[in-house]
Amino acid sequence: MNRLFDLRAVIGGLFTPYGVIVTLVGLFDDPAEIDKAQGVRINLWMGLAMLALGLLMLLWLRLNPPKPLEAGEEKED
Fold first, then answer.
1. Domain tally for the chain?
2. What sections of the protein cross the membrane (predicted)?
3. What is the pTM of this model?
């Protein structure tokens, strides 16, 4: 149950697909959009940064999973 509410899973699960989408948009930017950003392919760079952050969060979750709750540690409402 505590794995469900781990913020690393939420952040990684949101940033990874959004990073893929923004990266793809950045790959196919037309020159007018690049000129608006003063020659920087901002969609490409931000998409890659979002993708890296999402994958790092998922990797962190995979390498250091949350500990299971003991029988006496359950919260009472």
1. 1
2. 7-28, 40-61
3. 0.79
